[in-house]
Design a protein that fits this description.
Layout: H1 8-11, H2 28-43, H3 47-79, E1 87-88, E2 91-92, H4 97-142, H5 146-149, H6 156-195, H7 197-244, H8 246-252, H9 255-305, H10 311-356, E3 372-382, E4 385-395, E5 400-404, H11 411-418, E6 426-431, E7 434-435, H12 441-447, E8 448-451, H13 462-467, H14 475-484, H15 488-492, H16 511-524, E9 529-533, H17 541-554, E10 559-563, H18 567-570, E11 575-580, E12 583-589
Parallel strand pairs: 5-10, 5-11, 8-9, 9-10
Antiparallel strand pairs: 1-2, 3-4, 3-6, 6-7, 11-12
Helix pairs in contact: 2-4, 2-10, 3-4, 3-6, 3-10, 4-6, 4-10, 6-7, 6-10, 7-9, 7-10, 9-10, 14-16
Amino acid sequence: MPCCHGDLAESATMSAPSTTDGVAHPDEGAALRDTFRYLSVLHGSIRGPLAAIVVLGAIAGLLEAAALIAFVRAAIDITVGDTPDPTVAGITLSMSPGTLLIVAAVLAVITAGLHVLLARRSVALGEQIAVNSRTRLISSFLEAQWSYVAKYQSGRLQEAVSSLANTASTAATNFAFGLSSAVIIAALAVAAIIVSPLVSALLLTVPTVAFMATRSTIRRLRQSADVNVVASMGLSEATANTANLALEYRTTGTQQVQARRLAELARSHSMAVAAVRRKLFTVAFLFKDSALLALIAVVGVLYLTTDLRTSSVTAAVLLLIRLLGYLQQAFRLVQEGVEQLAVVEELRNSIEELEDHRELDGDVAVDHLGPIEFQSVSFSYEPNRPALHDVSFTIQPCTTIGIVGPSGAGKSTITELLLGLRVPTDGQITVGGIPIESLRRADWTRLTGLVPQQQQLAELPVRENIRFLRDRITDSDVESAARRAHVHDEISALPDGYDHVIGRQSRGLSGGQRQRIAIARALAGSPQLLVLDEPTSALDATTEQLMRQTLLELHGRITIVVIAHRPTTLETCDVIIRLGGGRLETIEPGPLSLGAGTAPALD
């Protein structure tokens, strides 16, 4: 494991990038526009949906304004009768109160229908962003360079796919709702100004002043939210690492120590999030209450200076009250967006970081395996600490090669280089004279197969575990591979045979069965190069004998490279390559050597 249990919780707090250190953003407006622009990129075709939302919002706002005006005129006629000014915006509504109420009701019903359409379109927009962002995260992770994926922090992908993508979806939905609210607010404001310019001008100062008063506070809270999002990612990583090391904590008796460390990290993060939300809710309530008080004050001034019984003034006041309701809704969306936009930025960083490490593909097609040459190959995981140093050898087709050496000798590094998962720091690996990095990746993976030391089987039927998403592999190919791996009879004895669903963590299967199913998976693709990493390291004698029998049956038909330490496994090899300290020590003839013409040799 990359880190010890004592440092797991602390490590989560060290991942915050320098861009979220609490320093004010130079241009908050530009940052918001950049975030919204990225939501557009994630959606793919957001202009059409947003245009529809704007049009629907404008129509809904105008119809709602018309409904309110009709209602106000009818209400005044019913309750007051003759008014000093029976016109609204210079227009005399000559309809009876009953007719005006019917018109108002019809317009209100149509407005409600438009609101439903707005809600559906807004949610659909967010849903599309969730699907697209999750697809990009998963695809970019699976297509990233192995050297990057191998050190990718555990839990980051799960957190990004579940939490970050979901929050980005909510942010997009809220943005769409906020946009529709803004359009409706504009429509109501225009209607109010047309009805009574002076009254509306006075009333519109209320939300304008309230917004300006809270703008700087929202900006500061956004910066705090940026830091909290990064801390949340660190907490997820620490939690995932804790789960991975659960057995070690239990067997060393340190589970309570780590529980306290993780609980303290969670408490610290929760307190920081609560502080931001407490301020956000306080600002929201202050905005609402101050706007209401200011509105009461303005209406009081109007009461002393004008006749509020006129239809125009009453309609303007009611329109502005309705506008204030939408403004409070918009402010609530801004409040939620403070945290959500920070999450969108973190999602963007996660996707772009993965895409920046996309594996480069070669352009040379290959359909058969030629000699594989390691030419003065060196590789370092860290600067000045080589895992391999100046290693040279040649693997001829259809030979079985054993690679042995103590821990840290470079065996696993050779495996990953051989499979094209890593690129040499120095030197070159060629296949039939062609640099391995120039080969088309899809062609090379069809020619190679790996049996890892730790077998990972999915919670799927045995058949699908062997096929492993390769549609070209038929059921007949699956059974043939299982027979060559000497596991067919045991699969047939399972309750549902090849359709038996393997349980969580491969429960119900022995280590030997898992190993041989993994071999069948590799053989099902008919590879010309089979690499086995410590295939018998944890097998009983019977299973090891079956493994040896499989290797003997494959001998001379395909190229086999075995990372091994047991002498019985090396008995199936033509040549044995010994490593020590990252250097090639010797190349020796193996028990099944077919002669110098087919054996690897020093260059």
